[in-house]
């Protein structure tokens, strides 16, 4: 949502949030942002996977910081047009973090290109932002086994699958089967190790985030 989803503005927001939490006595320095995700694996007419359509809803605290200072006519909400510049910054910044999405097709790395069809929505009732975007594969993927993982290797951002219809196959060939793997449960020991990391401390890649990855596995005939 999460950062956010994400350039310097994204990391700046994270640092501000972390400072507030620590000042308030919160124990854990990581993660800083929480995202609830829904994803569609999109297929073409020939049965090839074309990309992943993500819907990421950010926590209310990150959302409040993200919209701070944005111009809008109605003080109680934001239109999609008013949020579009922020959406553009988000999706462009995601590239630096590999879009937090990692794919393998038949055990070979599948690469993505820049997101398309992106926009932000603001839920005035829950005061949260939701980022929608299509993440296309660099080339259509013809694979019997497609594996997708969504996570932040540095665990600044915590991704959780939505409890209702978290992942769907869009126009997939008949017979394709979807399996989900949820992140491991947080342990007291790991929580303490995370709490001991300074707010500005960099977590070694894959040392934490990969343990909390959301796995999407599609097997086709």
Domain module tally? 1
Largest sheet: 6 strands, mixed
Shape descriptor:
globular
Quaternary class? single chain
Compute the number of helices: 4
Strand content: 25-35%
Distance between the termini: 35 Å
Q: What is the helix fraction of residues, given as a range?
A: 10-25%
Q: Roughly what is the average pLDDT, rounded to an integer?
A: 82
Give, in order, the helices and strands. HEEHHEEEEEEEEHE
Using the CA coordinates, give the radius of gyration.
18 Å
- Report the strand count: 11
Secondary structure class reads: alpha+beta
- Give the low-confidence spans: 1-12, 14-29
Task: Name its key features.
alpha+beta, 6-stranded mixed β-sheet, 221 residues, 5-stranded antiparallel β-sheet, globular
